Amino acid sequence: MSVSSRRRPGQVARRAPRTQEERRAETQTRLLDATVECLAELGWAGTSTTEVARRAGVSRGAQQHHYPTKMLLVGAALEHLLERQRLAFERAFAALPAERRNVEGALDLLWDTFRQAPALALMELAMAARTDVTLRELSIDINERIIAVILEVFQRLFPESVDEETAGTLIRAVFAMFVGLTLQNSLDDDAHGRQAAVLGQVKALARLLIPDPV
Questions:
Q1: Are 40 and 126 in contact (CB under 8 A)?
Q2: pTM of the model
Q3: Distance between CA 176 and CA 85 in Å, rounded?
């Protein structure tokens, strides 16, 4: 090695310049994260591409280059969010103590997920879609994707617990129940423990259907 190529003590190695693809991915991630943040805080009506670009720290031109319309931006953000939430759920379940890696633990984690900002963003979209025809198709598609992802994770965590048709019906019931409970929770933060009581009953029933893995 030549003297000129050696690093001096304390000298920090230079990072290789980012590739165009890496810069593109970073910009897109910032835009998608900012979109989810806006939806959760401001709702569909309050979310604008201008505000998303400001929060992401990118120019309006850059935002329009990656996502020309608000609908494309929101659609991409929700797909990004769904995959991120799935990975976070699976990591959290794997990190549970062995005695809690059961259907009750899974439902507790799912309830935690529903009360976080990303899930609230999804519900804001669903509420707006009730009166916005252009948004309805996207919202219905995302809801179906969410249910499909929950079902996929459920079947992977608890294989052969119930048949596929029954599992699908149960997941839809839990999804609908958690949406309602989350709306209540966003208003009163379960000040009287009523949502916790409902969740306790759901977990007790689920335990009867799906015993702990052997």
A1: no
A2: 0.78
A3: 18
